[in-house]
Amino acid sequence: MKIAVSGKGGVGKSTIASIIALTKAAEGDRVLALDADPDANLASSLGIPGREQRHIVTISRQIGLIEERTGAKVGQYGQVFKLNPDVSDVADHYAYKHRGVSLLVLGAVKSGGGGCACPENTFVRALVCDLVLFKGDTLVMDMEAGIEHLGRATAQGVDAMIVAVEPGQRSIDCAVQVERMSREVRIKRVAFIANKVTGKDDCDFIKGALPKREILAFLPFTDELRNADRDGVSPYDLLDGETRGQYSEIIKRLES
Question: I need a labelling partner for 197 at 20 to 30 A (CA). Which of 181, 203, 224, 239 fits?
Fold first, then answer.
């Protein structure tokens, strides 16, 4: 199973991605979690202590590795470099392992134009392609907020795009754009998770705003999950029995 989680900033993408990843790891699967959001919140959501997060390798900052594999100097333009650098060993050598989940953090590529043909972007795109198309592990990708990543088609090839949405029009508007662009890059399955739901009115609002869409679950808003980041714990460890069951059902539906 290879999924990407997207949506408007603040809707709980990293929370959802981390819980799915940890749930699959607890089931005994080999799980690779990819943080493709420049804000890089997935490590915290997985419950990796702050003191340990500084040991996590950010791929886009591995200048020596990128230059070696692409044959070009980072930050210099007008160069000829490899468009298909070897990335097959990156996950094995650079992932941070935590509770059965191997985490890779892409980081932000600081260059003119997010989709430029520079060595950093070429290397990152090759890595994502390798993970999506060739690795046999369960892959959970926490995408950057909004729709920029779809403009660069970095999620192309996943089994499903999960769009997290909360009860609010701006979140809905972003979700609809993510759905449209997902179809444009030929992602076959786009499903939604309604997050931070407080009652029937919220459920009805989301159902009415997203008619005839596949909504995998309506997840409740809780103070415990809201405070997880503040308290330095993973939301996975704070789930009640009912919500944990909802996540198990989400995974079953994704795998069906």
Answer: 181
| Nearest Cα residue to 197 out of 177, 175, 171, 179 | 171
Q: Which long-range contacts (CB under 8 A, 24 or more apart) does 20-23 make?
A: 20/140, 20/247, 20/250, 20/251, 21/46, 21/101, 21/138, 21/140, 22/46, 22/99, 22/100, 22/101, 22/234, 22/236, 23/236, 23/244, 23/247, 23/248, 23/251
Q: What is the pLDDT of residues 209-240, one digit of tens each?
A: 999 999 999 999 988 888 898 888 999 999 99
Contact 107, 40 (CB under 8 A): yes
Asked if residues 139 and 17 have their Cβ atoms less than 8 Å apart, the reply is no
Given the structure tokens 């940890």, which residue do they identify? 22
The 8-class DSSP code of residue 95 comes to P
The phi and psi torsions of 220 (rounded to 5 degrees) equal -80, 150
C-alpha neighbours within 13 Å on the C-beta side of residue 34: 31
Q: What is the pTM of this model?
A: 0.91
Residues 23, 10, 189, CA angle at the centre, nearest 5°? Answer: 55
Output the DSSP codes for 111-141.
SSSTT---HHHHHHHHHHHHHHHT--SEEEE
| Interatomic CA distance for residues 69 and 237, integer angstroms | 39
State the DSSP H helix or E strand holding residue 90, giving kind and residue range, or none if neither: helix 90-94
Distance CA 60, CA 118 (A): 12
